């Protein structure tokens, strides 16, 4: 079997975090979590992450700032990790702002779990 891919879920809502984690674990992904921007940056430094589901409204450092910081990382592997934005208020951002920050894809809340699985597979296969 191919090596298990690791997905980082950056989400401050435990309900959404646990649901998302369960669904992705059923797809045989290894899940690591972060409840705020500082934890996101610590996780990408600590281990190989294959994709990030980034809630844009996380505390300490929001998802857009985290994404920019990851994209500017000196380690090219970390800088290139696919980042999928997850937000309940995407209307606050334009697609241009997502692109400028370095976001690869976007999923609206409430999450469509079929779309979630499909999008994650698209970026980590």
Provide structural commentary.
The chain is α/β, with parallel strands linked by helices and 125 residues long. The chain has a single domain, classed as Response regulator (Rossmann fold, 3-Layer(aba) Sandwich). 44% of the residues lie in helices and 19% in strands. A five-stranded parallel β-sheet has the order 2-1-3-4-5, with helices on both faces. β1 (6-10), α1 and β2 form a beta-alpha-beta unit. The two termini are 13 Å apart.
Keywords:
five-stranded parallel beta sheet; Response regulatory domain-containing protein; phosphoprotein; 125 residues; Sig_transdc_resp-reg_receiver; Rossmann fold; alpha/beta; CheY-like_superfamily
User: Level of helix content?
Assistant: 40-55%
Separate helix tally: 6
Binned strand content: 15-25%
Radius of gyration: 13 Å
CATH architecture: 3-Layer(aba) Sandwich
- Count of distinct strands: 5
| Class from secondary-structure proportions | alpha/beta
Report low-confidence residues grouped into runs of 5 or more.
none
Task: Give, in spatial order, the strands making up the sheet with the most strands.
Answer: 2-1-3-4-5
- As for the CATH topology, it is Rossmann fold
Q: Kindly report how far apart the N and C termini lie.
A: 13 Å
The first-level CATH class is given as: Alpha Beta
Which outline best applies? Answer: globular
- Topology order in helix (H) and strand (E) letters: EHEHEHHEHEH
